[in-house]
């Protein structure tokens, strides 16, 4: 069912020329192609309906929406009949009312009034009531329970299916097909025996259902319903906010009942998600109120001591005094801070401001370092801006979609549904990935080419694709001549045309057959609209930045930039990766990607912040670890980032963290990094604060406070207090004031304000005088840097090589139900789908090692070892193994190495040489961890200054 | 700073720019990259390493570090 207060218009919007008609005496003008049902609803003359909803194509089965049209015989269905100029429509008449009552009584004969757990949310019972129906003349059961005798399917942790309440309108089946694209639901049986079936009449949890919730939102009765609504009353409040999971940045409506979130519903006006959500965004918000939340500040002198609960004042003052002490003794560059891609733009901006202005150093970095920093570097150098070029809806205009090193159905599921819609409509698909991701073959979608390359050979493949484009005359020469640097293009063209880059020469390196590369290159280049989407399978390599530049080279050479349907689009891993980078989180850049050594830029910040700023770039995260180990870096403030779990080569990371004299963690849970912390400042979830997130399409969307902060303060307020305690005053009254400062200091944000975001719904930067409403498509007409620049991108093999000791290549990824290091999703019922990380191995490699499905296996690399349970599958090729990294007890980063991207130091998570052997049980450290209970903090006194 | 690690980082940067046909451009590419992205402790350490012989550095990396402005 819809979100509170949503006015459903019955059928989707049309986009034709304007047509004017008369509906019940009112003059209505709508685009041609609009249904009469929608036109009537837009004129507030809603026609009764049951099988129609405005996210789905018309179906015309319920016969409730009949209308009269002057000059036409009969009673056409308003959902399937399009408007016409001069048409005169009657939606109400005695004849219509009589027919509708008759149809509704038939429905009520199978779904008695009062059957639904909450009749006020049931469209059938509401409609029947409006037509004066209290019971059916046609008999039928007195209660729904006597109807089909099917047990309620409550297998899914979040919703249940009660077949007795189902009116077989097919809205759920169509939502699964049209909105989600999974095709998990069907109508089984005929006539009165018709019923909704998940897969082969299986319980929902065991079926192919991905639990996106589109079906329950489409259901007009209580047949498919959130379990949370069975106990919660009607919501008193609905707050539009933005999801805090992946970089799609879905707009969601949080319904609040008695001060708690009772349901999360996708915002149908949300530009990024277009009314859709996934199992994480829609359902997995319970972590926000999980019992593990830390809500009181904690301190300890040594990491071997127990935590002591203290007041906010004491924690903040202790942290500030420690940072001051360290800086006084070791110099101002002996401390630094880390911003978080999970926090808001405003919070991120404040942390980097604190580091630069209050600490007086540029030792600030962000968790984007370990995911998309090569995107920023590669796109900035080639095109002039560190961001993706398109908006998501652009994919609907693509003819050829290239997915490189990403699995959208797992990691960006709502965008994947949009992509699959376009693929079902006929677009071609090229997948470049070592693993057979679900998009390679799924219902009604099959890749035209799957370039199944060996991990670590991305650049070899992109060069081979470019070689075909250049040597077969597939370049867009007019476009290049007009929009790109001639000299750099000629140099690049000569380089890729060299036979050493041919698909045939590269085949032994990449493992991809040359004819597949040639076919894929021709397909992409001839488009006519070729769109590239990529993920961490591109960036998290020793040549991550090279690959991003290689992708940009290919897109420029084929003219696939600067309009809808084309482009280069990084799929950002976390909700605010783009935003945290935009906000000046990197040690060499202020907000808007401007180098700290630029005197004029620095002067604007110095004038606004009233403090001299360092012209020297600071340390990156891995450099901070190195400096901690050599004793020149002693203090760190980390907001919302779990370095000890998410960063590679864990033993190296923990040695560095152990060497710090003061580590201040601000987070919602005790995480792995907190084990090395001296001060723990409780954080807030996205539900507890105001702010903005910026998604992968540069879309700035509002985060709105839904519940009060559990710990009493939003994260931005805590940063502000720390800054004040350090002696650098910050006195913002609301995050909107922080955004005003961002806008004043950042050329791409000058037109951004909370007032404008609220008015427009969201804004894609750049938003300034040149683009007051934002910029959906970048590089239209000209590149941001002026002329597009080609870079020579020679393939340089990674240092990580297979040997007889480490004969397999390990690569990593995500699964749909879990998110990153799992801090949030592990604390939700999403565990029903994925409760442990597993190692995928090809049957040949398993057989050679005597490994059977479900066995424990030891995974050993040059960096370390761990034990995982094994899954034998042909999703991975022989010689390649794969795991997710959602559970700390898996220790996936114990085995990843500290190889990194040459330009940005982004870790090479995606290539680790390993050996896999069968073992009897988990490693000793894993067993100890499993057995250990987290120690509760010692309570010294109640905090006195907590306003919560 | 672990100088061995810095040498490896410098060589990786040089490996990218080594595909540049004009060697002077390649050296300048490495120099400007280090000047723009490496923190002063790192620059100081690699310059000091070069002063002591610069073992392990590739020719392009070595030439680039020779042109780095000394850290104050």
What's the topology here?
The complex is a heterodimer of chains A (948) and B (72).
Chain A: E1 18-23, E2 26-31, H1 36-42, E3 68-69, E4 88-90, H2 94-110, H3 123-130, E5 159-161, H4 171-180, E6 185-188, E7 195-198, H5 214-218, E8 224-226, H6 228-231, E9 237-242, E10 251-257, E11 260-266, H7 279-283, E12 298-299, E13 308-309, H8 312-330, E14 335-339, H9 345-359, E15 364-366, H10 373-382, E16 400-404, H11 408-411, H12 413-424, E17 428-432, E18 441-442, E19 445-446, E20 449-451, H13 458-471, H14 477-483, H15 486-497, H16 503-510, H17 514-526, E21 530-534, H18 536-539, H19 544-557, E22 568-570, H20 577-582, E23 589-590, E24 594-595, H21 599-609, H22 621-630, E25 635-639, H23 643-646, H24 650-658, E26 662-667, E27 679-682, E28 691-694, E29 699-703, H25 715-726, H26 735-745, H27 754-760, E30 763-764, E31 808-813, E32 838-841, H28 843-848, E33 856-861, E34 865-872, E35 880-884, H29 892-895, E36 912-919, H30 924-931, E37 938-939
Parallel strand pairs in A: 1-4, 13-37, 14-15, 14-25, 16-17, 16-21, 17-20, 21-22, 25-26, 26-27, 31-35, 32-34
Antiparallel strand pairs in A: 1-2, 3-4, 5-8, 6-7, 9-10, 10-11, 12-13, 12-27, 18-19, 23-24, 28-29, 29-30, 31-36, 32-35, 33-34, 33-36
Helix pairs in contact in A: 2-3, 8-25, 9-25, 9-26, 10-19, 13-16, 13-17, 13-19, 16-17, 22-24
Chain B: H1 3-17, H2 23-37, H3 40-51, H4 59-66
The residue ranges of chain A in which pLDDT falls below 50 over 5 or more consecutive positions are: 939-948
Rg over alpha carbons of chain B: 11 Å
Q: State the distance separating the first and last CA atoms of chain A.
A: 34 Å
What is the residue-averaged pLDDT of chain A?
94
Coarse shape of chain A: globular
Question: Which structural class do you get from the secondary structure elements of chain A?
Answer: alpha/beta
Question: What is the H-and-E element order of chain B?
Answer: HHHH
Across the major sheet of chain A, the strand order is 15-14-25-26-27-12-13-37
Q: Supply the number of helical segments of chain B.
A: 4
Q: What radius of gyration of chain A results from the CA coordinates?
A: 29 Å
Strand content of chain A: 15-25%
The share of residues in helices of chain A is 25-40%
Largest interface: A-B, 32 and 21 residues
Number of strands of chain B: 0
How would a crystallographer describe the biggest sheet of chain B?
none
How would you sum up the major sheet of chain A? 8 strands, mixed
Quick one: how many beta strands of chain A?
Answer: 37
Unreliable runs of chain B, pLDDT <50, ≥5 residues?
Answer: none
Number of helices of chain A: 30
Strand content of chain B: under 5%
Terminus-to-terminus distance of chain B: 17 Å
